[in-house]
Amino acid sequence: MSRSQASERRELFVVCAPGLEAIVEGELRGLLGGAAELRAQGGGIEVEASDRDLLRLSLKLRTATRILARLASFRAASFAELHRRAGRLAWEGLLRPGQPLVVRASAERSRLYHTGGIAERIARGIGERLGAPAPLCREEDAPPEAARVIARIVRDQCTLSVDASGEALHRRGYRLATAKAPLREGLAAALLLASVDPSSEGEGEGEAEAIVDPMCGSGTLAIEAALLASRTPPGLARAFACEGWPSIDRALVDAVRAELAARPRVAPPAPIVASDRDPGAIAATEANAERAGVRAWLTIRQAELREAAPPGERGLVITNPPYGVRIAERRRLPAIYAALGARLRERFAGPGLRWRLALLVPDPSLAAATGLTLAPRLHFRNGGIPVTLFVGAITR
Ligand SMILES: C[S@@+](CC[C@H](N)C(=O)[O-])C[C@H]1O[C@@H](n2cnc3c(N)ncnc32)[C@H](O)[C@@H]1O
User: Fold this and answer.
1) Cα(105)–Cα(116) distance, rounded to whole angstroms?
2) What is the predicted pLDDT for the residue at 200?
3) Which of 66, 159, 179, 381 is 20 to 30 Å apart from 124, CA to CA?
4) DSSP 8-state symbol, 198
5) DSSP assignment of 260-325, as one string?
6) Quick check: CB of 171 below 6 Å from ligand 1?
7) CA pseudo-torsion sign 52, 53, 59, 65
8) pLDDT of amino acid 115
9) Burial 61-75 (b: 16+ CB within 10 A, else e)
10) From the CB of 100, is ligand 1 less than 6 Å away?
């Protein structure tokens, strides 16, 4: 690879769940430095980055969904124009000749609207450029070596990108066991980052907040809290599509991975406790924590909510109680949230105790049912359901 290729910068689009842009932007600032030019759009953030940064972002971002490399943006008002322009792009840096392709096409307010036709013309252009037909496949039938091309046409302007991540970034690889209604790993990390106590910044390690999830399900919040506190790069155990790009220097991939893997992990400075009344959930939490390499740092126990107790003077109770998908369940929800609030006021508030609550709810009235004064911090969709994160002090 030539020197100019090695120092080339790519235009990236870091995709995230709508509502999480500010959190992902904060992570990007932390990883790329204050001088990085970030342009937030609904559902993601645009940024230019070197290959080294692309690899670091892939391995270290906790809350983004995936990273796309933007290849080109051009006018395409006919299939002939789309085919011709697509065939002129430098696909050889990102795809291999004959590599199976999934083309995710969308079109709005444009002359081209047939997404199947759009995908087919792009694949044909790519095949001609690379000198071997690119077999087009559907997401459901895609073989593991398939590459993903994203085509978005708005008002006849076509933007083409190649997916740099492969599997979505929330798939860290540890969560093979799930209990009911698991939270995506990236959303769990976003809840933790959004709940950070601003007053804790700059304080000594002894003052760190403990974490308690008394309805832990498959343990995602507790495991993500341990990965965060131990500064473990969440992507170390998995691979990313960009690592196989012809234009990526393999030695750089190995060097970035080796550098991150060699950094000593710091044991979380305060206890992290996960409990649930369901034995299946506890077994899932234990297996997931083991795979994530954080089992030794968690206290995991089968317990009813009413048995929850603070493991220290200061901390954060962070949890997503049942949402109540069925109507009969939904009727019982206010009582569950009231019981949670009562338990927390009784055990986690009082002289010498400084505890806060971060609660993910499908309906703000459920946050009010706790009897605590909580403020909304984040709003996004979880499994299609609009949800809000409420945060506040636990006081009597
Ligand atoms: C929505 S799930 C939590 C999902 C979890 N955040 C995850 O990522 O897998 C709610 C959990 O609350 C637990 N739960 C409900 N009522 C409880 C109670 N009274 N005491 C303890 N756990 C309870 C359920 O067993 C269930 O695992």
Assistant:
1) 8
2) 60
3) 66
4) G
5) HHHSPPPPPSS-EEEEES-HHHHHHHHHHHHHHT-GGGEEEEE--GGG---SSSEEEEEE------
6) no
7) negative
8) 97
9) bbbbbbbbbbbeebe
10) no
Is the C-beta atom of 322 inside 6 A of ligand 1?
yes
How far is residue 357's CA from residue 374's CA, in Å, rounded to a whole number?
8
CA terminus-to-terminus distance, the chain: 64
Write down all domains in the chain, each with its CATH number in brackets.
3-163 (3.30.2130.30), 185-231+266-393 (3.40.50.150)
Residue with CA closest to ligand 1 atom 14: 215
Of residues 123, 151, 127, the one with CA closest to residue 137? 123
CA of 277 to the centre of ligand 1 (A): 7
For residues 356 and 211, is the Cβ–Cβ distance under 8 A? no
Q: Closest ligand 1 atom, CA of 305?
A: 20
304: Cβ below 6 Å to ligand 1? yes
pLDDT at 205: 44
180 ligand 1 Cβ < 6 A: yes
Handedness of CA 59, 205, 296, 24 (dihedral sign): negative
Low-confidence ranges of the chain (pLDDT < 50): 1-6, 202-206
Structure token pair of residue 110: 């444009």
Ligand 1 binding pocket includes 165 (Cβ within 6 Å): no
Nearest to 238 by CA among 265, 261, 268: 261
Give residue for tokens 């030794």: 296
Expressed in angstroms and rounded, the spacing between residue 49 Cα and the centre of ligand 1 is 40
